[in-house]
Amino acid sequence: MAYPSDLKYTKDHEWARQEDGLVRVGVTAYAVQQLGDVTLIDLPPVGSDVQAQERFGDIESVKTVSELFAPIGGEIVEINTELESSPELVNEGPYDRGWMILIRPSDPGELNRLMDPPAYEDFVGSLEG
Q: What is the pTM of this model?
């Protein structure tokens, strides 16, 4: 599986994309593959503060409920409201229409602590044994 080269990744299978000083966040295709069909996504309200590696919501699928973790800290300035009525967008396009939150980072340098695509690919490979 190829992972987009313009993203950074976490060990919790979230991705982060820097966009004009903000950071868009979602879950990876690997996470979607493990979850199966997504049925519900619970996201925090706009204006909430999140800390790096802390839970910011939940994603529910036919198989399980999983927690979502922020790749970086900051203020949530937008959520993907389309996911409320169409959570399946995460399955259809985890890197585009299936994004979850947009963060104004408190420390943009936190992005440098995340994995680049080759490192994430190696990490996923180690999980699949």
A: 0.95
